[in-house]
UniProtKB/TrEMBL annotation:
PROSITE patterns: ABC_TM1
Regions crossing the membrane: 7-25, 57-81, 88-113, 119-138, 171-194, 214-233
Protein name as catalogued: Nitrate ABC transporter permease
Family: Belongs to the binding-protein-dependent transport system permease family.
InterPro entries in UniProt: MetI-like (IPR000515), MetI-like_sf (IPR035906)
Species of the source: Macrococcus epidermidis
Membrane topology: Multi-pass membrane protein
Domain ABC transmembrane type-1 positions: 53-233
Keyword terms of this UniProt record: Cell membrane, Ion transport, Membrane, Nickel, Nickel transport, Transmembrane, Transmembrane helix, Transport
An example Gene Ontology CC term for this record: plasma membrane
PANTHER family: ABC TRANSPORTER PERMEASE PROTEIN HI_0355-RELATED, ALKANE SULFONATE ABC TRANSPORTER-RELATED, MEMBRANE SUBUNIT
Record's subcellular location: Cell membrane
Keyword Ion transport (UniProt): yes
Amino acid sequence: MIKAIKFSLFMICLLLVWEGLVWLLKVDPYTLPAPSAIAKSFVVDFPEYFPHLLPTIQLVLLGLFCSIICGVLFAVILNLIPVLNDYIYPLLIMSQNIPVIVIAPLLVIWFGFGLLPKLIVITLICFFPITVSLLEGFHETDKDLKKYMQMMGASRMELFTKLEWPNSMPFFFNGLKIAGTYSVMGAIISEWLGSDKGLGKFMILAQRAFQVDQVFVAIVWIIIFALIIYIVIEAIKRFVLRWNHE
């Protein structure tokens, strides 16, 4: 609570400094609008950008769901079949070094302007933290407990479901929080590919019209969405880990 108050006061000071510098230096609003101008646009232009909010939310949630499926699937396969690590894991690392802005147009050429290329973009951005975190959780399993269960005749799947998977949950949620925050930006990038609705489309329209205050409004909403996702995942993490501990 104290940290939140300190951070809030810090942000207020930053905004006041920003407002003061824009006023003192007489910065052109087409270059950098003042926080007050952005706040005004946030309220006044709500009917204009409201239709773009829901499509972005839907895309973020669907993309994050696909990222979780892919991230968990890769981690489980690599854990249960260790021999594949030498072949698949380098490919996963390579996938994170491919600039999304470069591969995105190719996805449009291959799959069109529909939903699929957008989901692929978000998944490419978000699945890796989940996979890496889960693998770390699997590898951090207590070796003594594992040997004890093996001595008791536990099968490989029993070791996984009763020991490795529960042990990996804190790591999974840590990776999920990273992926959750990335998913919003992934959705925005995917909407830049070609979309009729969404905050990404709204940002492009605002840039072309030199409405810089509206661009900042879109950025504010991106931050809000990312914070909400982070808070929700943190709440789910606390509930699941408490239930798992009990």
